[in-house]
User: Fold this.
Amino acid sequence: MTRTAPLAPFPILDDAELAGKRVLIRVDLNVPMDAGKVSDATRIDRILPNLQEIAAKGAKVIILSHLGRPKGCEEKYSLRPVVAELEARLGKHVAFASDCIGEEAEKAVAAMQEGDYLLLENTRFHTGEEKNSEAFIDALASLGDVYVNDAFSCAHRAHASTEGLAHRLPSFAGRSMQVELEILTNLLSHPVRPVMAIVGGAKVSTKLELLGNLMRRVDILVIGGGMANTFLAAQGKKIGKSLCEMELANVARQIVADAAAENCEVVLPDDVVVAQKFAAGAPSRVVSVDAVGEDDMILDIGPKSVARVEALLEKTRTLVWNGPFGAFEIPPFDAGTMEIAAAAARLTKSGQLESIAGGGDTIAALNKADAAKEFTYISTAGGAFLEWLEGKRLPGVEALRLRVRRQ
Assistant:
């Protein structure tokens, strides 16, 4: 089930003259590291075609990124170890500069030939990055002729390398940024209906804006994870010792009422898996949501709830998923998430469903279920994916849109 995306309201690489240019490309190399080596290269794999395309067009490819949350220049957050992973995947030499501005960076850029790759050191080693300071933006901009933002996962940050540079240089969205924006724009503006959203996670308080925006855009809103406990408690259900934000009971009731007014069906668990100890292999049992004991903790949804969601998926045509149904990291409390993930993957593979998922826990759960590879699109963005679904404007995207308006 495919649809043609509308023309992107932001400049893309098709619009760029890159031959002979120094191209500053902001990517997200904030990848997991283990013993000084990249342990998960998913984000690197996403950007490779873009890097190769820019190099093939005769540009000098100057790569910008952050890693972690360093306080100053901390060696453990250096991007140097990422060079080996980039070289292995690109099949080309990747030079490295021990700073992202100043003399070291300038020398490294000056030594480049057309088609070369250069990775600059962690942009967050400078306070000007997160402050989006004019001086730091100018120092970065002096190294390039063109700016490409291919880091949607960082687009919710108004930092120098994610937003500021777009105001200094001719600017374009990279290919993975372009794909992500077109898919998510279609998802919210031109979805194939019915549309289902699965929203899980621990707390209602962290996803209030998300729920408020989705209820106006989807036909079915499935609430899972710890946040479902707050909704159950708001209905007067006993939830024992389960995670709950009882102070948000009135908010939960209002969300349900508002959803009804928008003709959005809210789906909560009918049965749950409970245990008195949160540990792998802990004794557990399935009970109705009306039969949770005072010493019980709700740690997953039950088989009736799984069957209900699967039946709704059968008539759904677009699915957006953010957050697991239970404590999926620990068996047996992963069953609900695993079974629904498998059903969504099967329906997607058959062409019956378009499925989009994002967020770290969601991706981890879908990978555990071996379902991610079948989804229509998996967003590697966490906060940016969530804020986009909340309907917020992302600074990194808006800076590109502003460039279009100025043309």
Summary: The longest strand covers residues 22-26. The chain has two domains: 13-175+394-406, 191-375. The CA atoms of residues 273 and 286 lie 5 Å apart.
